[in-house]
Amino acid sequence: MRVRLIVLLGLLLVQPAWAERAPWPDWEAFKTGFVSDEGRVIDWTSEARTVSEGQAYALFFALIANDREAFARILHWTEVNLAAGDLSRQLPAWLWGTAADGTRKILDPNPATDADLWIAYALLEAARLWRKPPLEAKACAMLAQVRAQAIERRADGTVLLLPAPRGFRFSERVRLNPSYTMPAQLLRFTAVDPSGPWAALLEQFPAQLAELSPLGRVPDWSQYRERRHELDADTGGTGSYDAIRVYLWAGLGPQRHEAVRAMLRNVAGFAVLTAEAGRVPEKWSARSTWIEGEGPVGFDAALLPYYRALGEQAQLARARARVAAARQDGVYGRPARYYDQVLVLFGKGYDDGYYRFDGQGRLVPKWKR
């Protein structure tokens, strides 16, 4: 295992003189507070567990920062501990932590599709930006696994992105998570896998949102039944910690793509809600005016690209002020929660100019411009 890590570090650390690290204080603070020396991303507020989503996001952020050493460590830990040593052969388990008998191991082997796609995207872009073709091969192998295990094509032409290979198909319905659909990813995947389902997923997503969210208020979960997208029978129409990412992805664009513009139009009503409420609620209803609580600072950070895309200057200023006020010792919120930091890195990182996506869904980090 040690030899494998040394080889991987060597593969990623060799870089041309022009490719220098991009100083990103929020990423450095996240590494210090939430990433172990071995490359494990730790959710301290949930029994120090690790989820594949966290590993995936950290790979993406390390790429934005041109942090090859961190990327290598995070990738190595992910492969060894979540994917039996090889992501090209096995999708990562979504949950790792401390079992009842005190051992630290995989607690649920079911892969999480959003994490799988984020890892594949990070590998694709690392291969391109760092000129490391083996990483692209690994990414394409992951996409092939997702196609085989987590995509369902219906007779009517509808393509469904399952949240995981197991546990979401039922006799009369399929449960779905709207926040697992990220436009820039799908554009990039279409370029490397043109026969895949990625273009159809993107083209169909705005209509899916329109069915689910006539007020622009996205639910955390939905279902597909009898050729229709509906509110999830298990959770109703409540939106919160999952759904906030839909607004984030819509804001990140690329805005020139018609499907992304349509997506943004279909969720623009949420800006009306936050303006009238004077805050971002923690929970909301997809089909009524009900809201509850005040969302954590990560919600305001996630909405920064969304407010920018909509031209909501007053709300953009309010969100920026709340995020800035929540910064304490380099991290955000009290206590500093893993998910808030992730949303800050996505939303504030974009707002601060550390990255963007081009019209083909490719990552354009600050250090490359």
What does the secondary structure layout of this molecule look like, with pairings?
Elements: H1 2-13, H2 25-34, E1 50-51, H3 52-64, H4 68-82, E2 95-98, E3 104-108, H5 113-130, H6 133-150, E4 151-153, E5 159-161, E6 174-176, H7 183-192, H8 198-212, E7 222-225, E8 228-231, E9 238-239, H9 244-252, H10 258-267, H11 269-277, E10 283-285, E11 291-292, H12 297-302, H13 304-310, H14 313-325, E12 327-328, E13 331-332, H15 338-351, E14 355-357, E15 363-365
Antiparallel strand pairs: 1-2, 2-3, 4-5, 6-7, 7-8, 9-10, 10-11, 12-13, 14-15
Helix pairs in contact: 1-4, 2-15, 3-4, 3-5, 5-6, 7-8, 8-10, 9-10, 9-13
GO molecular function: cellulase activity
Family: Belongs to the glycosyl hydrolase 8 (cellulase D) family.
Enzyme class: hydrolase
Describe this structure as you would to a colleague.
- With 369 residues, this protein is of the alpha+beta class.
- Helix content is 49%, strand content 12%.
- The protein is built from 15 helices and 15 strands.
- The strands form 6 sheets. The chain has a 3-stranded antiparallel β-sheet with strand order 1-2-3.
Helix content: 40-55%
Q: Enumerate the spans where pLDDT stays under 50 for 5 or more consecutive residues.
A: 1-7, 13-19
The biggest sheet, with number of strands, parallel, antiparallel or mixed sense and barrel status, is:
3 strands, antiparallel
What is the overall number of helices?
15
Task: Describe the global form.
Answer: globular
Number of domains: 2
What fraction strand? 5-15%
**Terminal Cα separation, in Å?**
36 Å
Oligomer: single chain
Radius of gyration: 20 Å
